[in-house]
Design goal:
alpha/beta, Rossmann fold, 3-stranded parallel β-sheet, globular
Length: 97
């Protein structure tokens, strides 16, 4: 799949989603797929929710556009589960359709 086809594919899938949920780690900016998904979410005006590995530096402009940010401890599934719950607590009307 070439780049324009991939972007169109991602956009079609994201159109069906209420939010964009991203795992944000130190190597996020190095992943072309992650960056494209983030850009498509911005262009589709989707609320951006970030699950961030504790200790990861979040660029200030990313912090400005994120609807909600929660932190988790790497290698700790319970921490990730709790962060996910906190992220969506009180937001159910936005994520169920």
């Amino acid at each position: 799949m070439n780049l324009p086809e991939y972007v169109e594919h991602v956009a079609k899938k994201m159109e069906q989603s209420a939010v964009c949920l991203s795992l944000f780690t130190d190597n996020y900016k190095e992943g072309t797929e992650s960056l494209l998904q983030f850009a498509v979410a911005m262009m589709l005006d989707k609320p951006i929710y970030l699950l961030v590995k504790r200790g990861t530096k979040i660029p200030k402009h990313v912090m400005k556009v994120a609807e909600k940010i929660e932190f988790f401890d790497e290698g700790n599934p319970d921490s990730l589960a709790e962060a996910t719950k906190r992220l969506f607590r009180g937001q159910r009307s936005q994520i169920t359709q």
